[in-house]
Amino acid sequence: MNADRSAHPVTMRQVADAAGVSIATVSHVVNDKKGARIGPGARQRVLEAVRELGYRPNALAKNLSSGSSNFIGLVADAIATTPFAGQIIHGAQDEAWKHGYVLLVANTEGDLDAEDAAISMMLEHKVRGILYSTWFHRSVVAPKALKETEYVLVDCFDEKTPAPAVVPDERQGGRTATRLLLDAGHTRIAFVNTTTPSPAQTGRLHGYRQALHDAGIEYDPALVLREQPQQEGGYAVAERIRALGVTAVFCHNDRVAMGLYDGLRELGLSIPHDIAVAGFDNQEVIAAHLRPPLSTVALPHYEIGAAGVRVLLGLQSAPAEGPLLISCPAVPRSSI
Fold first, then answer.
1. Which of 22, 88, 211, 292 has the CA that lies 20 to 30 A from 81?
2. How many Cβ atoms sit within 10 Å of the Cβ of residue 318?
3. CDD domains attached here (predicted)?
4. Residue 333 resides in a domain
């Protein structure tokens, strides 16, 4: 049995003719229909014909007839083009594959029309469910179309719906970053927070305060500074940091820490000899390549993506109230 595979796709009729059976028999075999009465000889001839001819079943038709598929959808606003947050896709993809599913990814760049089209396409393909993800942790309004299937919010949450969500534990992360500095013997620690309202802004501040409280150190609001969450913000705050007389600084993210490095260096201060610095995010293109390499706390994007798939498949439970919190691990290097 030879077929010209460079021409048209092999049809079920061709398989039936090659195996000497009916089209219905071929359909029952390739779709593994339960209860179908097919003799072992006929089944074997069909499987051999399928292999020889290179027949591929029509996945869409199979999905439509069964009402489900081995696809999981992931709709993202920008994470496919954001290097460190792209780990969400990596984690979801690995976890989906582990359980026999393939991840369909749509990167919408925040375009609502593209988002609607992507969700509609996934629903047409009868996906097992959809992960709806953002590239940074924030509140969203989940698209109405998601309610037509099972879905999980990933790195975001909807305050007005009980939809399951998976997000980083910002409070624990802030506590862990501050703890790195406390464990090194520092007691006068500044926190450079962002000016942008977000779960990260409030959560990391709460964690900073909790770590100080646990260590028996009184919280001093004068040691909390707010700057833009970019390198320029960290650079701009260096003079105030020196004036505060602190021995350590917890920065809202690694970009702020990078700017603070530059500012402190211009003031003649060395890290960590004069001032210890801890960041947040673990953007390796920054943290691992600063001199000295930056001690930081990682945003667990890979695990967030993997957990999203597990929750969708019912392999892991999400809390009845509030999102599932994923721990942010410490990444100690040489800046403390």
1. 292
2. 20
3. HTH_LacI (cd01392), PBP1_sucrose_transcription_regulator (cd06288)
4. no
Weakest-pLDDT range from 16-20, 22-26, 62-66, 204-208: 62-66
CATH of the domain at 17: 1.10.260.40
The Cα 331–Cα 95 span in angstroms is 24
Q: E strand or H helix at 193, and its extent?
A: strand 189-194
Residues β-bridged to residue 332? none
72 contacts 309 by C-beta, under 8 angstroms: yes
Per-residue pLDDT, averaged over 212-232, amounts to 97
Helix (H) or strand (E) holding 154: strand 151-157
Range of the domain at 262: 170-297
Q: Six-digit token pair at 173?
A: 């992360």
Nearest alpha-carbon partner for 246 in 262, 260, 232: 260
On whether residue 101 sits in a domain, the answer given is yes
Predicted local distance difference test score (pLDDT) of residue 132: 97
Largest CA distance in the chain: 88
User: Mapping DSSP to helix (H, G, I), strand (E, B) and coil, where does residue 297 land?
Assistant: strand
334 occurs within a structural domain: no
H or E element, residue 30: helix 23-30
Q: Which residue has the higher pLDDT, 303 or 14?
A: 303
pLDDT above 60: residue 66? no
